[in-house]
Amino acid sequence: MAPIGVQSIFHKDKETGLAEVCAEIDVPYILSTASTSSIEDVAAASGKGSRWFQLYWPQDDDVTQSLLKRAKDNGYKVLVVTLDTWTMAWRPADLDGGYVPFFKGVGNTTGFTDPVFRKKFEEKYHGKIEDKVIEASVEWIGDVFSGASHTWDQLALLRKTWDGPIVLKGIQHPEDAKLALEAGCEGIIVSNHGGKSYQFNTTQFILMFVGRQLDGAVGSLEMLPEIVEAVGDKMTVLFDSGIRTGVDIIKALSLGAKAVLVGRPAIYGLAVAGKKGAKNALQGILADLDQSMGLSGIQSIKDCNMSMIRKVQYGGDVRSSN
User: Fold this and answer.
1) Counting Cβ atoms within 10 Å, is residue 202 exposed (0-12), middle (13-18) or buried (19+)?
2) Helix ranges, the chain (H)
């Protein structure tokens, strides 16, 4: 289950409900830093289920270390560090409606329940977060989505605090994949932050619109084979962005991914029918995967390889020279 923030805006079951049903069907759940449930509450809901923690990396090292300690103490086994959202993208739909729930305290539960962040806030503002939600929201957003990125050498801080696997999410280039390997990361997630690629012919260019964080960026599936060729035999390569069906999963696995992250389908299910809807959506994708493998003559996951797929260029993809 891909890390998706602010799940209470979709349904009251939110992260705790989704983590619960993921545990029931043995799908690892990745908790977003931008959560409306605490690290501890999601761990309790997940029970014996597999859970990972996704980090929007704060600038404050003390807060960062506190978040990782809480995750570790509550049974999160893998740290997923998102690289592409150290600042929010230009999102016209959100801007048109003035829609930024974080400024109202929605999606800030991870920070608001953190003892180090709370202590620092109380010392600065001489009051509790609950009494100064707007001020606390500004402080939290300013730390997590600061507009300042981190550097490769700073990964040493995470390694010092986190003794489990570290996976970098948002890799879109083979050279960055190699740097992740050199930095000692166990895995990467090839991702453009959830956008599905669509090609549009224009007078001079073919553009790849991928949504969420950067329009015009190359599609993740386009880059997956190059990245797998560069590091796939040395570290775990996962794939995220645009997975909607079982056939999508087959394509990503055949191009070299070891597993995929599913996001929007589960959230659509959550929005429609709460945790039950999310569970049905995930079970449907798993059933689609099984059925589609059978129809393709693929007997097992390991048989999803390059021999099973072809990249086909259609006539409409290329402009006529006439």
Assistant:
1) exposed
2) 14-24, 39-46, 61-73, 92-96, 109-112, 115-125, 133-144, 155-161, 174-182, 220-231, 246-254, 264-296
pLDDT band at 226 (very low <50, low <70, confident <90, very high): very high
What six digits make up the tokens of 111?
A: 């920070």
Q: Please pick, among 126, 150, 173, 193, the residue that the annotation labels catalytic.
A: 193
Which CATH fold topology does 7-193+222-314 show? Answer: TIM Barrel (3.20.20)
Residues whose CB falls within 8 Å of the CB of residue 190, separated by 6 or more in sequence, listed in order: 171, 172, 220, 223, 224, 227, 237, 238, 239, 240, 241, 257
The tens digit of pLDDT for each residue in 10-24 reads 999 999 999 999 999
pTM of the model: 0.91
Provide mean pLDDT across the span 250-259: 98
Rounded-to-integer distance, Cα 152 and Cα 48, Å: 33
Q: Which DSSP category does 146 fall into?
A: -
Single out the residue of 305, 164, 170, 182 nearest to residue 235, CA to CA.
Answer: 182
Strand pairing class (166-171; 78-82): parallel
Q: Contact at 8 Å (CB) between 237 and 258?
A: yes
Most confidently predicted of 81-90, 113-122, 139-148: 113-122
Task: Output the DSSP codes for 226-243.
Answer: HHHHHHTTTSEEEE-SS-
User: How many Å apart are CA 264 and CA 243, to the nearest integer?
Assistant: 8
Q: Is 11 a catalytic residue?
A: no
Taking Cα atoms as reference points, which of 80, 282, 300 lies closest to residue 190? 80
Q: What is the mean pLDDT of the chain?
A: 91
Among residues 163, 166, 156, 205, which one has the least CA distance to residue 189? Answer: 166
Q: With pLDDT > 70 as the criterion, what percentage of the chain qualifies?
A: 92
Residue listed under structure tokens 């349904």: 11
How many angstroms separate the Cα of 223 from the Cα of each of 106, 129, 216? Answer: 34, 43, 14
Q: Is the dihedral of CA 263, 266, 271, 272 positive or negative?
A: positive
The amino acid present at 243, given as its one-letter code, is I
Are 245 and 288 in contact by the 8 Å Cβ rule? The answer is: yes
